[in-house]
Amino acid sequence: MKTKERIIEAGLKFSSLITVLTTLGILWVLLSQSLVFFGEVSIIEFLTSREWTPLFENKHYGILPLLAGTALTTFVAIAVALPLGITIAIYLSEYASAPIRNTFKPLLEILAAVPTVVYGFFALTVVTPFLKGILPELATFNALSAGLVMGVMIIPMVSSLSEDALRAVPNSLREAAYGMGSTRLQTAFRVLVPAASSGIVVSVLLAISRAIGETMIVTIAAGQQPNLTFNPMETVETITAYIVQVSLGDVPHGSIEYRTIFAAGLMLFVLTFILNNISYFVKKRYQQQYE
Amino acid sequence: MEEIIEIEKTVTSEKHRAEQPADAKHTENPVRPKLETRGVNVFYGDNQVITDVSITMKEKSVTALIGPSGCGKSTFLRLFNRMNDYIKVFRKEGDICIDGKDIYSPSVHVEDLRKMVGMVFQKPNPFPKTIYENVAYGLRIQGVNDKNILDEAVEQSLKSAALWNEVRSNLKKSALALSGGQQQRLCIARALAVNPSILLMDEPASALDPIATAKIEELIHRLKEDYTIVIVTHNMQQAGRVSDMTAFFYLGKLIEYTETKKLFTSPENEMTENYITGRFG
Ligand SMILES: Nc1ncnc2c1ncn2[C@@H]1O[C@H](COP(=O)(O)OP(=O)(O)O)[C@@H](O)[C@H]1O
Ligand SMILES: [Mg+2]
């Protein structure tokens, strides 16, 4: 019995160790390769140059165009997911009856379960042609379609975490609001949403983090053209799409061109790391609030 | 017994009118009771929790509802602002009237009703907003955004709730930073800000320490000048201190309803006597 428990305990320790080691390994590869990269390219150029052309004759290593592409698709995605996600969360937590909620929620989760490659070609072959009918100057590969579709994909993330936050608001506040003569809508928007704001903020931060890291949709539908623009109708390239492009291309391993993806990857890692940490702290604060 | 109360009430109301001929704030017919129920039954599903309760409460009086836990005091209190409506299995029979008007009639908007009937809950439940915004809430949801009007209402309500002096210099502070007793007075101020004529209080001091409780009781005394108050309490001393009339409920039935002094000194019903002498409950 004792030995059995010890074996189980060792197994558990080993599994968690593997997870930690993998993370450390990834971080190590990113950092060491980036270090070599930044030995050849100044970090100032990397952060401030307005051109990203490592694969061309005239090489520039400014991450800004890739960051702009990521920011643009992410912005469009959040512009879709935030209002819809919160509306759905309010509907599910304050209006829907239990049977409706129990059917609607799994259906909603399907959105997050669709393979991203499907979203990607949906954006390219359905959404873009449709939008071109309305916006003739829309590029074939564009940030708008990719962002819109990505926004739909992350709706369940925003809605389910926001719904949890809304449901965690104590009933005494609902009673207070209704007791003052609030309508349901007033109760939801003036009392419950503010009271659940930290949870809602967390849901949005995590959704942003997810959108920044999303790869397949933007690679397929947003294009592969580094472009320092804030016009969502144009072709762009996100950090993730660039990494895909180089990984799949015929750039020789060990070259400076090849190392750009580690620097880009480090950038991505830093961004999502910061976002996840902010949401962790917000979450901790909001858990304390009602204890 | 109830007839006697009716007559008594009518007489005092007449007297009341004679003393205060021009009451600008609430000009109700003095003969008519402020609150009235007739043959009220309440069910939660198949479970009957209020049985055939008829009661009248006169304007600007304090009525205490007492009785053992689970006897239906809260349920009965919440009939007057229709807070039970949110419970799916809730069903009621009989009439519940305010100023002679059936508040469950389809023509009554429950939001309007609740602006007239304020409620204070057992556990202080301020919104996680500033002190100012808590008190301004009721006016804001009515579309009032004029700063002068709001400032004035916030100050007046906080004064009426005997909280002004304690919070006047930090109205922008979070309401959650206040002590429990202050939070409860803030909730009273919040209710007063929309100028209701009735205040329902469900064990408003049960979560507070004795000093905070004394402040609330003192406040109830003063609020009685302007408001009709119905208060649920499990504390019989409290009922004795704050109320004019006391209603004793047992198992959903109104056992005895009379002047507080009389109920506590010479109750007519044996069950009432047993309860107030602490033999059960
Ligand atoms: N939401 C509800 N659903 C079903 N039964 C309820 C509900 N609220 C209260 N009851 C029942 O109604 C009875 C009266 O409750 P309540 O009015 O809260 O009594 P009191 O305030 O006197 O303690 C109790 O038996 C209680 O279990
Ligand atoms: Mg109760």
In words, what does this structure look like?
The complex is a heterodimer of chains A (291) and B (281). In chain A, 77% of the residues lie in helices and 0% in strands. With 291 residues, chain A is an all-alpha fold. Chain A is built from twelve helices and no strands. The mean pLDDT of chain A is 94. Chain A has two domains: 2-40; 47-290, MetI-like fold, CATH 1.10.3720. Chain A is globular. The longest helix of chain A has 39 residues, at 2-40. With 281 residues, chain B is an alpha/beta fold. Chain B has one domain: 3-Layer(aba) Sandwich (Rossmann fold). Chain B is 38% helix and 23% strand. Chain B contains eleven helices and ten strands. Chain B has helices at 2-19, 73-78, 110-116, 131-140, 147-160, 164-167, 180-192, 210-223, 236-242, 260-265, 270-276, and strands at residues 35-44, 47-57, 62-66, 90-98, 101-102, 117-120, 198-202, 228-232, 245-250, 253-259. Chain B has a six-stranded mixed beta sheet. Chain B has a four-stranded antiparallel beta sheet with strand order 2-1-4-5. In chain B, helix 8 links the parallel strand 7 (198-202) and strand 8 (228-232). The radius of gyration of chain B is 19 Å and the shape is globular. The A-B interface holds A 170, 172-173, 175-183, 186, 190-191, 194-195, 289 and B 81, 83, 86, 110-115, 118-119, 121, 123, 125-129, 137-138, 140-142, 187, 190-191, 194. The complex binds adenosine-5'-diphosphate and magnesium ion (MG). Residues 44, 49, 67, 69-75, 87, 89 of chain B line the site of adenosine-5'-diphosphate.
